[in-house]
Amino acid sequence: MAEAPAPFLEARELTKHYGNVLALDGANFSAYPGEVTALIGDNGAGKSTLVKALSGAIRPDSGQILIEGSAVTLSSPLDARHYGIETVYQDLALAPDLDAAANLHLGREIFRFGPLHVLNKREMRRRAVAAFADLGVQLKDVTAPVVTLSGGQRQSVAVARAVAYASKIIFADEPTAALGVVQRERVLDNIRRVRDRGIAVVLISHNMPEVLAVSDRVEVLRMGRRVARFKTSEATVEQLVGAMTGALTTEETPPTGPAADNNNEGSAA
Amino acid sequence: MTSGTDGAGIMSAPDGGIMASADEGRQGLGTFIRRALAAGETWVFAALIIEMAIFTGLAPGKFLTVNDLSLTSQTTAPFLLMAVGETFVIITAGIDLSVGFVLVLSGVVAGTYYLHNGGNNAGTGTIWIGAVIGLATGAGFGALQGLAVAKLKMPPLIATLMGLGVAEGLSYLIAGGTDLRSVPNKLASGVGQGSFAGVQWLIIISFLVTLLFGLILAFTRFGRYTYAIGSNAEAADRAGINVDRHLIKVYALSGLMAGLAGVLDLGYFSTTTISGHPLDNLVVITAVVIGGASLFGGRGTMLGTFIGVFIPELLATGLIIVGVNQYWQYILTGLVLGAAVYLDQIRRRLREHA
């Protein structure tokens, strides 16, 4: 997997301040097509900030984002979408009063009668049913407001939305955090299925067994920097935890230091 | 319970309108009854019927005569129009306190134009221009309030309270402290007091506008974005909806409705009624909230508002007919508003633990 020709998405030396807090301190990251990259790190390591920067939700203070090798500026989530980037947010970002079909199409409604922008509810409902069936999600009623759904079902709606539209890469920020065992398995199955379509998947997770079960590579973030990379097949829970807590570092440390990015991949194994 | 969002009727839904009916037909009467009971409109309508029954019982033969109904509808027209705009605003989880005052300001601006352009004898063309000026005043004023909410991130309560003060002051300044009586006779006899096929123009216009915006709310992108923003503005933003721009449009719409009400009011009374609308906002907000719209946003329907607006209005007429001091209307309206908001909170809690 690591032999994949070029990353679809690459971050170089991203920094981001929130007031006095340095959330990203020269963070690097790369994601390859057809691969699940797990992004792990302790609380406050900068995972969510990094994902927000890479999905257009925030602008980094400095650093470069490259898509298929060329530098881009992602000024909004909409901008990121045009590059085929979709995100499943930790807080789901659903409109609770709208139904599943409406949420699936939020911001991408299907219209009739041209300039009148009349919603084609029937078509949206039909596609929603198809999208959920595609994911093996059973929703009794796609016209029920999502506030009436269970946590797992809501998660399914959020995942289905990302899956339905992502053409290149999906960021999934703790997509299984609120789920039961069965639903968790289903989400992980979906992640594999999406990967097998050749899409890059970035999974942010705290759950080490889950990371080992579903990812192809692991990138570890600590204090706003990437500190280690592993091939999942060669990594152990101890190594991952060690990298997260600072006991183990396989990456270069100072951003200004000599570029030592060449031979580190999986070197801890 | 889901109330509101999956009700019956063409004006009643982000979803589940005309297009759903084919599927629902198969699910049978039980589903229909369950949905009807869950829909906010059913309860509002029941409340309205009870209110009518009480007054009819108290004053048999006097309440609910044809004459009485049409008079009520006429005086309700401006409230209905303002409630149409307020419905959109409240669904975005906002509030517009300025409605009655923007009504007055629009009327005063239009009235001032008439004063300098023929006054009572102004022709049709002048009347139209004045009307457009009045509408533009309302829409522009509303857009400014929307700007304060969307771009300056002011709480809607404060932005429109500010607007309320500004509109009130401007009205007195422009009018010179007294009501303008320079209303074209043609406006008064035509739209103001006139009728078409036996129905007053005020009623026709306000009902058609309500129907139009009810359809827009239930079936178009504009309506869908309104619900989405009120339900979760952050989600709407991430989904690529231009939240700020939409909010400005919604407040502009509320101003536009107040402006239209202002022009019609000018025709109805043949004068600017500068001091006559201090509690319009109370009546309008109460109507919208009784109609099932949630102050927390995301829920509400035009059908609910349409029914809801008649509750405080019939209360006013009823109290007069029964011979109770009409100032009780405001006390009762205030209490009804409180009760409706309390019920909404209970409903919301029940639903979230469902």
Describe the structure.
The complex is a heterodimer of chains A (269) and B (354). Chain A is α/β, with parallel strands linked by helices and 269 residues long. Chain A has 2 domains: 1-84 and 166-269, Rossmann fold (3-Layer(aba) Sandwich), CATH 3.40.50.300; 95-164, no CATH class. Chain A is built from 8 helices and 12 strands. In chain A, the strands form 3 sheets. Chain A has a 6-stranded mixed β-sheet, sandwiched between helices. A 4-stranded antiparallel β-sheet of chain A has the order 2-1-4-5, with helices on one face. In chain A, strands 7-8 form a two-stranded antiparallel ribbon. The two termini of chain A are 16 Å apart. Mean pLDDT of chain A is 84; it is low at 254-269. Chain B is mainly α and 354 residues long. Chain B has one domain (40-352): Orthogonal Bundle (ABC transporter involved in vitamin B12 uptake, BtuC). In chain B, 73% of the residues lie in helices and 1% in strands. Chain B has 15 helices and 2 strands. In chain B, a hairpin with a 2-residue loop joins strand 1 (195-196) and strand 2. In chain B, helix 3 crosses helix 12 (280-290), helix 3 (66-91) runs antiparallel to helix 14 (310-322) and helix 4 packs across helix 11. The A-B interface holds A 57, 76-78, 81, 87, 89, 91-99, 101-102, 106-109, 111, 116-119, 121-122, 143-145, 147-148 and B 2, 5-6, 14-17, 19-20, 219-224, 227-228, 230-232, 234-241, 297-299, 351-352, 354.
TL;DR of this structure?
The complex is a heterodimer of chains A (269) and B (354). Chain A has 269 residues and is an alpha/beta fold. Chain A has helices at residues 47-54, 77-82, 100-104, 121-134, 151-165, 181-196, 208-214, 237-245; strands at residues 9-18, 21-31, 36-41, 62-67, 70-72, 85-88, 111-112, 118-119, 169-173, 200-204, 217-222, 225-231.
